[in-house]
Design a protein that fits this description.
The protein is mostly helical. It is built from six helices and no strands. 14% of the residues are buried.
Length: 234
Amino acid sequence: MEFVVFATAYFYLFNLGSRFDTLNRFCEWMPAGLVTAAGTWTQSEITETMERVRLLHSKLCDLLRVFGFGYGGVLLCYFTFNFFDLLRNFYYLIHVSRYDSSSSASSYNNSLNVILTVAFCLQNVVFVVCLLIAVSWINEKIIEIISFLRLIHVSKLPIDTKLQVKLFMNQLSIFEWDQFSAFGFFHINLRLIMSIFILLTTTLATSVQMKEHPYVVRFNNEYQSYLKFEYNMS
């Protein structure tokens, strides 16, 4: 199930990012400063092309927004369950290291469980990082066109072309307040990696500091009993 969510989200985001990248490459081929010259595009062609680029950019942003509305809840659950699964696996690795198996068969099973747990942790981390990189790449491509627009001397352009450039700039400023998020709870970008790491370390540190609390002691005892029963630890 996790792989299905990751694969579908990454496939859609990668394709959308590729379209933004193609649009940016096309803008680089346009006349410098959107000013016509001998043997190049006419001013009407430049204005019409600029309008089409702006509308296409807006359509792609709308597709990203619709994807966020439709898939944002799924990604919210995905990131949440991945965090709790990662926390549970870390908690398991901390507790399982306290036990020594009495038999070679149990020792082999315990080692295999540890290896599989670490592998699942790495898989979840790789999936999450890939999704965050894909979203950050899209955000970068969306804003990248600003550098192209800033090189344009708007005061020297005809009225129609100047209007398209100003509309494009306003369109980009609106996007800055409407970034891709997990159903509105948090923005999905590379900063989320640091947030997850801080939250994970804080939770583990708090559990260590509260190890003498009655509820924590009871939970640890129950969990240790479960490990002994499930994995035949002694």
